[in-house]
């Protein structure tokens, strides 16, 4: 299109791209990525945008320290994004540097997807070469499809081929992501076996020509995630399992670290909604404590707690904290946000099994009551709200 045919309306659209609900990490942290590329100029694996050490720093943060460019022209503090062990992230990065597949497994809501996006963005500059695994995922979605209009008009050609995100990653030497790989049918999963071992995809329709095979460029690798609550990782074929290094991601070990994460993420989401975040630390701590007690089956004091069958994930704790933040911003003064907590907890607890409501009541009658009796004002209020859980 020439400039004369461009209408002013198109210009306006190009000048101001629509706001997005979620920024991918390569955009949200573009300044950090650019800085880290200049900060650490050491050797990097083929096609990598950052050194392996800089990738770890991007994910784990610089510990509050402002890093300085070698020429002293700029400095930047890298934010911590993933809360967990640095050694786990280092192992993930080493796996990718060795061009092996990486499989992140764990309970729902443990930041598997987030970590895979962060790693992909840091290594190759995009987290967008993604296939979402579902029961309906087909082999084409992992390999390639066709633009049927072109196919009918011209016959099979490279132009008519529609590459999957995985094929695009292969030809660019980038990182492909396959979300929830175990939800794909086993025969579809197995398409990944040949791709990960031979590092090429045959296109029989173009056989004999230069495009009959698409080869993976150096740097190509794949990060898959799998949820332990879905169809099991154990059901993956042995051949596919051998092509991945497995890393298990667990819940956040430390109460203070989890509370800080819940606070900062909930604050971020309430502020994005245009409101100010005003939930007391005491409320957040009670919320995270209840999640952890129910998740682990043991209270912070060491009392036994009957666990509901559902996972009490950090991701859900963040959603509840955000809901409390929004409620207090939009309905100020209606009532104390603490009063909303039992209802939200009940919603989370009984989503898999309605009988889990009784387990939450059991938690109230044991741990919550004991804390109230020990004189904590927050837990006293929560104990007084026990009736919310009885229906
Ligand atoms: N260890 C953690 N570090 C940082 N954020 C975390 C952590 N654990 C949970 N979160 C929060 O959980 C959110 C959801 O994580 P994500 O969607 O990546 O989880 P997931 O493991 O892929 O879950 P699912 O199995 O449901 O797909 C993150 O955006 C973040 O707010
Ligand atoms: Mg996920």
Distance, first to last CA: 64 Å
DSSP strand tally: 11
Summarize model confidence as the mean pLDDT: 92
Percent helix? 40-55%
Low-confidence stretches: 1-13
- Spell out which ligands are present: adenosine-5'-triphosphate, magnesium ion
The arrangement of helices and strands along the chain is HHHHEEHEHEHEHEHEHHEEEHEHHHHHH
Q: Over all CA atoms, what is the radius of gyration?
A: 25 Å
Outline type: globular
Widest sheet: strand ordering: 4-7-10-3-11
Report the portion of residues in β strands: 5-15%
Total number of helices? 18
> What's the main sheet like?
5 strands, parallel
Structural class: alpha/beta
GO molecular function: ATP binding; ATP hydrolysis activity
InterPro entries: ATPase_dyneun-rel_AAA (IPR011704), CbbQ/NirQ/NorQ/GpvN (IPR050764), P-loop_NTPase (IPR027417)
Pfam families: AAA_5
Protein name: AAA family ATPase
């Amino acid at each position: 299109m020439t400039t004369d045919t461009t209408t002013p309306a198109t210009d306006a659209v190009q000048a101001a791209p629509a706001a997005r609900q979620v920024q991918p990490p390569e955009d949200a942290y573009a300044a950090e990525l650019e800085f880290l590329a200049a900060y650490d100029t050491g050797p990097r694996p083929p096609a990598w945008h950052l050194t392996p050490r800089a990738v770890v720093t991007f994910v784990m943060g610089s510990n509050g320290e402002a890093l300085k460019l070698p020429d002293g022209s700029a400095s930047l503090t890298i934010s911590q994004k993933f809360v967990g062990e640095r050694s786990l992230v280092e192992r993930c990065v080493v796996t990718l540097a060795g061009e092996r597949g990486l499989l992140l497994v764990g309970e729902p809501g443990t930041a598997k997807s987030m970590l895979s996006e962060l790693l992909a963005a840091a290594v190759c500059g995009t987290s967008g070469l993604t296939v979402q695994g579902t029961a309906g995922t087909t082999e084409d979605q992992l390999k390639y499809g066709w633009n049927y209009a072109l196919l009918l008009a011209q016959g099979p050609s490279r132009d008519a081929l529609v590459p999957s995100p995985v094929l695009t990653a292969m030809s660019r030497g980038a990182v492909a992501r396959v979300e929830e790989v175990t939800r794909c049918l086993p025969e579809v999963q197995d398409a990944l076996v040949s791709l990960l071992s031979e590092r090429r995809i045959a296109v029989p329709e173009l056989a004999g020509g230069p495009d009959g095979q698409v080869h993976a460029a150096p740097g190509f690798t794949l990060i898959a995630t799998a949820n332990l609550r879905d169809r099991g990782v154990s059901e993956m074929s042995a051949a596919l399992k051998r092509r991945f290094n497995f890393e298990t991601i667990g819940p956040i070990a430390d109460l203070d670290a989890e509370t800080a994460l819940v606070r900062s993420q909930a604050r971020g989401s309430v502020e994005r909604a245009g409101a100010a975040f005003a939930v007391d630390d005491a409320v957040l701590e009670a919320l995270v404590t209840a999640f952890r007690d129910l998740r682990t089956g043991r209270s912070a004091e060491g009392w036994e707690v009957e666990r509901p069958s559902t996972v009490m994930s950090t991701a859900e704790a963040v959603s509840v904290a955000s809901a409390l933040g929004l409620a207090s911003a939009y309905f100020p003064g209606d009532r104390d946000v603490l009063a909303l907590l039992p209802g939200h907890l009940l919603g989370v607890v009984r989503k898999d099994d309605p009988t889990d409501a009784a387990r939450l009541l059991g938690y109230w009658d044991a741990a919550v009551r004991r804390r109230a009796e020990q004189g904590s004002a927050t837990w006293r209020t929560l104990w007084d709200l026990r009736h919310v859980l009885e229906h």
